[in-house]
Amino acid sequence: MKTNIIAHVALTFEFSAPSGPADQRSMVEDDIGRLTDADSTSGVACTDFSVTSIETATQNSAVSRTHVICATCGSENVRADAYASWDADTGEWVLHSIYDEKFCEVCETSTSLLEVDEATGLEVQAFGMIYCDDGARLVQGREQPEFYDLIVKTMAVAGGEILTLHEFDDMNRLEVEKCLADMAMLYPSAPVSCFFGDLVGSGRTNLPS
Ligand SMILES: [Zn+2]
After folding, report:
1. Residue 26 belongs to what H/E stretch?
2. How do the pLDDT tens digits run along the chain, 209 residues long?
3. Could you give the CA distance from residue 199 to residue 194 in angstroms, rounded to a whole number?
4. Which residues contact 173 (CB under 8 A, 6 or more apart)?
5. How many whole angstroms from 14 Cα to the centroid of ligand 1?
6. What value, to the nearest 5°, has the Cα angle with vertex 27 and ends 22 and 28?
7. Is residue 162 within 8 Å of residue 156, measured between CB atoms?
8. How far is the CA of 114 from the centre of ligand 1 (A)?
């Protein structure tokens, strides 16, 4: 007599490119299908499987995200006109299409948008600063900074321009460390450079010579 048993297992899959949940589920199903085809020598036969849920592993920050920003000011506070319909099964609005009209809440006007990859298109930079006659300047050598600034910026976009997504000024050392931690949560894949003068030899990147 043959017995069917159902085994509940958790499988971890590594994705090399960004993808949405529907694509992820279909790729996972394809891969499990290939795995179960290869089980004929183990004494049991997997006759069926179903993927009941997928979730992003919390330790997995390797997949970089795409950020959509205003092409004029760099803000992520942007809106798009869209068309949605009500899905009675899920009890949620389902997005159908996004129209060309885009709006920036910071510029308070219509705008065009840019898509930037977090790992290759963004950078977090923190600076140790010294007050001087002209206002302020970057620390030199091992000078002790008097205050700290931090920006989240794009790499050069079309036309060589660099856009700033966030800017934080006049922080003390504790505040800039907190800000760096906050930005690491918001942009976990973005490279970080700290130009603090006193951080030579630490794990962080420092001012290129
Ligand atoms: Zn804008």
Report:
1. helix 21-37
2. 778 888 877 788 887 776 666 777 788 888 888 877 776 667 778 888 877 766 665 444 567 899 999 999 999 999 999 999 999 999 999 999 999 999 999 999 999 999 999 999 999 999 999 999 989 999 887 788 999 999 999 998 878 899 999 999 999 999 999 999 999 999 999 999 888 876 543 445 444 43
3. 8
4. 145, 148
5. 36
6. 95
7. yes
8. 11
**What's the one-letter identity of residue 103?**
F
Residues lining ion ligand 1 (Cβ < 5 A) are 70, 72-73, 75, 104, 106-107
Q: 72 CA distance to ligand 1 centroid (A)?
A: 5
- Residue at 1: amino acid letter: M
pTM over 0.70: no
Interval between CA 83 and ligand 1 midpoint (Å): 23
Q: Ligand 1: distance of its center to the CA of 103 in Å?
A: 8
Q: What does DSSP assign to residue 205?
A: B
Cα 165 from Cα 123, distance rounded (Å): 10
> Checking DSSP bridges between strand 192-195 and strand 147-154, what pairing results, if any?
unpaired
Q: How far is the CA of 112 from the centre of ligand 1 (A)?
A: 9
